[in-house]
Write a structure and sequence with these properties.
about 110 residues, mainly beta, 12-stranded antiparallel sheet, single chain
Length: about 110
């Protein structure tokens, strides 16, 4: 597979396409509707056909967001957090110790 051009667009045999954006990012679209963008700072974003997203920032921290209200963040130091559609949530530190709260307000640690 040839690399994408420095500017303009390249269409692959499967119908997917890379398009160089004016800001220096490259957007890759697939025939199934997935859209991935790689930005000049190294961060990326992937948008699925259902609207859910995955994002990795320039430091490597990862976030997944669903269209139903689910969100999870995983940081490069091992810490993270999540939020479920029902309102339950949790966080953890780099050592894996964390707290959670359920939709009914019950709390706990792990």
């Amino acid at each position: 597979m040839p690399p994408p051009p420095l500017e303009g667009a390249y269409t692959y045999p499967d119908g997917s396409m890379d398009v160089q954006q004016p800001d220096g990012s490259v957007m890759h679209t697939t025939p199934t509707g997935d859209v991935s963008t790689v930005y000049p700072d190294g961060s990326t974003q992937h948008i699925y056909p259902d609207g859910s997203t995955e994002t990795v920032d320039a430091n490597g921290n990862y976030t997944r967001e669903g269209t139903d209200g689910y969100k999870a963040t995983y940081n490069t130091d091992g810490s993270g957090s999540y939020q479920n559609p029902d309102g339950s949530s949790g966080t953890w530190d780099a050592n894996g110790h964390g707290t959670w709260i359920s939709a009914d307000g019950t709390t706990g640690t792990f």
